[in-house]
DNA sequence: CATTAATCAACAGGATTGATTTATTGACAA
DNA sequence: TTGTCAATAAATCAATCCTGTTGATTAATG
């Protein structure tokens, strides 16, 4: 448990549950918290008193107009804690400071031909030092989360330096807070879970289409990482034709057909409609297949599709997936609702920052 | 919570954890329990004192021969609780009384052409009445579990009576203990989890090949049922060729090719080797495909294959699945270990009985 | 006599219960 | 219209309970 570094955060399970509820449902009065948690009003009084005293909750203006004593909704204190997120991409490395309610306060990025350990480490260290220097000394930084594709060395010989390189360990060396590292597609899922706009159920599968396709699985409101931290490897799911999801539903596939790279932001996304259309159709088939597999396996009611792609492209992809889903045999199961994610390109970096948040503030993050 | 009926069982989370550990690892001394649960020795003393007083644990003979005070291993009390299991099959309905350590104490069965609600209800009610009558009045029956295929009405017009029929509710009407109902393939998985011989990890997928193929998913040591109780619907998983797993890996498929039904026990299983061989090859392909899907989605290290089939057939099926697994693309994931189940035909009825057991005695079964 | 198992006695933390305080709406009488 | 009061709901206070921990103690063995 990397908690010696952050003695100011040591929340009990019930305190985490309260914060999690307020994060998901918005400002809530104490009575509502008692109702939904099943705890006694007195317990809620005690717990929220601590959370307010420690700066994690704010009491809002009293709400009048109903019978009985007016209620005082409690909301998350935006400065209750802050989180650093580092995202390593194929063309772009990003660093962000995110506050307790999910707003990006500082953002820096750097473009490269391909990422190397040295380059990333230097960018991150310099960036973090600069950010920390610009912050008041009492800024409460809970940790750093890193979102990175796994097996970077598989991308080509120029990436061999990543083999055996312990990025999280190296970053943690000189930082006064813990470092967490997760697959970038999983962090995109975590971001939707923690910061997402959509009202999502407690169980969903998240598909993220970026340079490669990946995903995440949320069960009972918690991101599943698996015993070998490799759950949600949706890109590796087998699909018909002896292929895997990432062979179809990846931007890299589109780039290969295009014969050129697409830029790391939406502005320069110029793809001939027929090329894009064919890619979307095939990707939709593959996405529907893995989505339905997940439903059969886990009884998932909702599948979220997001990606580092323009919104119209994403919308078309969702439409294509819905259509393909309707064509697949589904005897014995209910086809899931397929919805668009709410975070698009920012999902991975937000999710990186969500890693320390989940660790310290979500029920079951760790510790008690 | 159907617990008003069984006031004599009201175990705390830690008490359940102790029983669960002893069930899985065999007789354990208190010191080992303290070690593995993380609780203090004193807490273990208090908890086990209660469990022994209430008849759930037995103190064994002290173990000498090591340095220090000899230890007294604690084991499950066989009569700590008993469970009824009802299994509805295509040709056979079974009823069993299972004790706290998983031994079948009483077993009755009835063969029919096809199951109807009336027939099953009558068999179950008569059987339960007889069993209860034969038992001393202080036999501690915790509940009845029912293992049944879902969507029985899809099997043909003669099964229409099952549509909308609330079997669990009807059975519960005149029983002094709660009734639990689950998909039969899921109960087979539950049986392997609770009563299985094999040392299984905390996460595994269970594939059960019976009249139809089905399965179950165990995550963090708990059977996943899903928000609509339809998790582990592995038979409905899509496989290449626009089909579902149950189209290939079901005994019904073999029967269709054979042109006749196979008997509900291993003794009359006579299938020409080449017919069986072809079926096994195709089923192995399909099983490997869904197994690998599960691994990619959930990071599962072990896949268990079992079924209501003779052991040599099961062994060949596992071998075929291993071979097919090796042929599938697995970039980015680790192929799982594929092992045989330990319960074969008895898995479903044992799993039915395991439902009330899990509810009352496993951590997280329900309640506190 | 070091070592390990198990228990005793005192205590601590986090919850519950039941009584109490506070602030409001809505009904009704003046 | 306005003043009064019952009903309602939010929140807290005070006492208690339950379940665990800690630290000292006893027991049995190589």
From TrEMBL, chains A, B:
Under SUPFAM superfamilies, the record lists: Actin-like ATPase domain (SSF53067), Winged helix' DNA-binding domain (SSF46785)
Cite the source lineage: Bacteria, Pseudomonadati, Pseudomonadota, Alphaproteobacteria, Rhodobacterales
Q: Mind telling me which InterPro entries this protein's record contains? A: ATPase_NBD, ROK, WH-like_DNA-bd_sf, WH_DNA-bd_sf
Its recorded name reads: ROK family transcriptional regulator
| Gene source species | Paracoccus fontiphilus
The coiled-coil regions, if any, are none
PANTHER family linked: N-ACETYLMANNOSAMINE KINASE (PTHR18964:SF169), ROK (REPRESSOR, ORF, KINASE) FAMILY (PTHR18964)
Pfam families, alphabetically? Answer: HTH_24, ROK
CDD domains (alphabetical): ASKHA_ATPase_ROK
């Amino acid at each position: 448990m990397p908690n010696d570094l952050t003695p100011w955060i040591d929340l009990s399970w019930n305190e985490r549950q309260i914060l999690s509820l307020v994060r998901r449902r918005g400002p809530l009065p104490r009575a509502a918290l008692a109702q939904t948690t099943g705890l006694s009003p007195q317990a809620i009084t005690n717990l929220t008193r601590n959370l307010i005293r420690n700066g994690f909750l704010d009491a809002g203006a009293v709400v009048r107009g109903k019978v009985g004593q007016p209620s005082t909704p409690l909301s998350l204190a935006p400065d209750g804690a802050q989180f650093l997120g580092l995202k390593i991409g194929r063309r772009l490395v990003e660093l962000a400071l995110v506050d307790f309610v999910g707003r990006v306060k500082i953002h820096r990025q750097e473009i490269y031909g391909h990422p190397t350990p040295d380059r990333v480490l230097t960018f991150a260290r310099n960036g973090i030092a600069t950010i920390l220097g610009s912050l008041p000394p009492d800024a409460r930084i809970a940790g750093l989360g890193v979102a990175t594709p796994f097996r970077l060395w598989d991308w080509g010989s120029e990436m061999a330096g990543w083999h055996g390189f312990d990025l999280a360990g190296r970053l943690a060396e000189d930082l006064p807070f813990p470092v967490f590292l997760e697959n970038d597609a999983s962090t995109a899922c975590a971001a939707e879970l923690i910061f997402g706009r959509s009202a999502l159920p407690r169980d969903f599968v998240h598909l993220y289409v970026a340079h490669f396709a990946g995903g995440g699985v949320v069960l009972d409101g918690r991101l599943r990482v698996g015993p070998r931290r490799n759950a949600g490897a949706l890109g590796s799911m087998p699909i018909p034709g002896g292929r895997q999801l990432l062979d179809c539903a990846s931007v890299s596939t589109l780039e290969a057909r295009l014969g050129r790279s697409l830029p790391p932001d939406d502005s320069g996304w110029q793809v001939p409609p027929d090329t894009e259309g064919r890619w979307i159709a095939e990707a939709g088939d593959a996405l529907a297949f893995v989505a339905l597999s997940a439903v059969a396996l886990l009884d998932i009611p909702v599948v979220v599709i997001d990606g580092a792609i323009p919104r119209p492209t994403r919308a078309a992809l969702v439409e294509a997936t819905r259509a393909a889903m309707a064509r697949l045999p589904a005897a014995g199961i209910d086809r899931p609702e397929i919805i668009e994610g709410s975070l698009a390109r920012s999902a991975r970096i937000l999710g990186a920052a969500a890693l320390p948040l989940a660790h310290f503030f979500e029920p079951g993050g760790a510790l008690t």
